[in-house]
Amino acid sequence: MYNVLEAENLCKSYLNKRALRGANLTIQQGRILGLLGPNGSGKTTFLKIAAGILHPSSGKLLIDGQEPGVYTKSIVSYLPDTEYLFKWMKIKDAVQYFKDFYSDFDEKKAFALLEFMKLDANSSVKSLSKGMKEKLKLTLVLSRKAKLYILDEPLGGVDPTAREKILDAIINNFSENSSMIITTHLVNDIERIFDEVAFISDGEIVLQGNAEELRLNKNKSIDELYREVFQ
Amino acid sequence: MFHLIKYELRGKLLTILGICLTVIIGNLFLMTKVDSWQIGAPVLSGFLGGGALVVICIASLTLMSDYLYDDQGYLLFTLPQSGVSIMASRLITAVIQISIVLIVSVSMFCLLDQGRLLNAILQQVEIRELLYFILMHLWTIVSTLTFMYFCMVVGRIALKGKKVGKIGSFIIFFLLSIARTGLSVAIANLFPQMVQIHSVTTMTMNVGSMIFDIVTFGILFMATSYLLEHKVDL
Amino acid sequence: MELEFDDKMPIYLQIMDRIKMDIATEKLKANDKLPSVREMATILKVNPNTLQRAYQELERLGIVYTQRGMGTFVGERKHMIDDLKQEMAKEVIDSFILRMKRLGFSEEEIIASISKNITEVNKHV
């Protein structure tokens, strides 16, 4: 099967610390991978390299066979863990922005998703609560027909009802032609949507495998496994 | 690239409007005082216009630093846009917004002194010279900003932290400015050929330093574009 | 379909068990259409690939069949219901016996306790 993402011996060092020390990871087409690890384990660093906004110190990462750049950005839909929308924007401006810049953006889908998330296209981005902002970001990101979706903590700081909605939206809008990486530390809420999981600790992938096989072989839930690895 | 410019201008809309309104209202006020203040009114109008230009130039610098240091960078740098188009859109936006403020300030000034200065200038200036002024206006904005953007990007990449990066950028700017001026002067001495701009007055331009400026601009533009695309880490 | 998952066990096995159970108890009858993979994935909040796998396994076992472009249907093999009941009964009994033995009951004691409790359970059902 075809690998949408391949990372080989990926390293990223800063002056005073090494965020990634030789991470190896592959994701096949049509799969959802959970990248699990505590804060500071290198999750976000990895995702930022894949999104093309951080550059590795050594090793390589290929998306659809290419190094991160203009092409990969056009096929990667990235949900960052930051509030990156312009403050002057209304929700409909944000939708228009994505439509203007991404040729794979599906406006109809975006408005359907906004309705599903109970967001009003005329409210301004500034006025939204944290949960609503997260829903808006997810709407924008999922309305693209990307080859690879990268979701950094999509459930972070969101109340349980919003979590349900976000999970539903992810499952409904996932297609077998695309792949997804999701990071989280709320493993319990989301483990059933992973095909594969990779545990990242201290900048290294310490365990990667099929979620069902891991359950079968270890007789544990992914959540329990996570707690065991990261005690 | 067109879209990049559109959203840039939209983002700075309030700043541009605010500056223009201030200039217009300030000049309207000065117009009521033209008789009592005599020469003071046009002088103040000139200061007002100058101040407006300084503010909009600073706003043009934040076009870059907002993306380098704030979360908005996540929006810009994940777009499938090359470094060249990001850089070019930044410069075009800056030219447009500075020109808007300049045109508003100059028009208000002309209204204030009832076109006297404008007439005086137009009588002496040749079309060739006028074109030269306009070109120089655009060129100054573009080359200066490119130089400053380059320093900002280098500071951002070389130094960690917002404060350190910004101060570092300023120091880099300072040092490079000295180096650039020194080189430019040396070249002008080495190649003293001049081009006469005006047929009567002695307005001239050194060919050597002009070529030097164009070449440095080209190098800095490409270097900044490359750094934006391949080296900036958010 | 409501389903509480035990995340310690493979999800696809649990989904298979649930469908088998529904067929055995005739909630699902021969030639009934199962929900599409995507519908089911949304309802259960499970990865669509996991459901795909559950359906494929059921098909391999001859319990369901797929019609191109139509969907997945409950099979109409003879004795399927009885077979499923037998199979599931065996699973329940096997694990029951195993656990009783672990508790230290002898075979006679196990049979005796069943006879004793079956009347009590009957009262409640």
TrEMBL record, chain A:
Gene3D superfamilies: P-loop containing nucleotide triphosphate hydrolases. Keywords: ATP-binding, Nucleotide-binding, Transport. GO terms for molecular function: ATP binding; ATP hydrolysis activity. It holds the Pfam family ABC_tran. Residues 5-227 form the ABC transporter domain. InterPro entries: AAA+_ATPase (IPR003593), ABC_transporter-like_ATP-bd (IPR003439), ABC_Transporter_VariousFunc (IPR051782), P-loop_NTPase (IPR027417). SUPFAM superfamilies: P-loop containing nucleoside triphosphate hydrolases (SSF52540). This is ABC transporter related protein.
Automatic annotation (TrEMBL), chain B:
Keywords: Membrane, Transmembrane, Transmembrane helix. The chain crosses the membrane at residues 12-31, 43-69, 90-112, 132-155, 167-187, 207-228. It comes from the Bacteria. This is Uncharacterized protein. It comes from Pelosinus fermentans JBW45.
TrEMBL record, chain C:
One of its GO terms (molecular function) is DNA binding. The keyword RNA-binding does not apply. It comes from the Bacteria. InterPro entries: Tscrpt_reg_HTH_GntR (IPR000524), WH-like_DNA-bd_sf (IPR036388), WH_DNA-bd_sf (IPR036390). Residues 9-77 form the HTH gntR-type domain. Gene3D superfamilies: Winged helix-like DNA-binding domain superfamily/Winged helix DNA-binding domain (1.10.10.10). The keyword Endoplasmic reticulum does not apply. Keywords: DNA-binding, Transcription, Transcription regulation. SUPFAM superfamilies: Winged helix' DNA-binding domain. Pfam families: GntR. This is Transcriptional regulator, GntR family. It comes from Pelosinus fermentans JBW45.
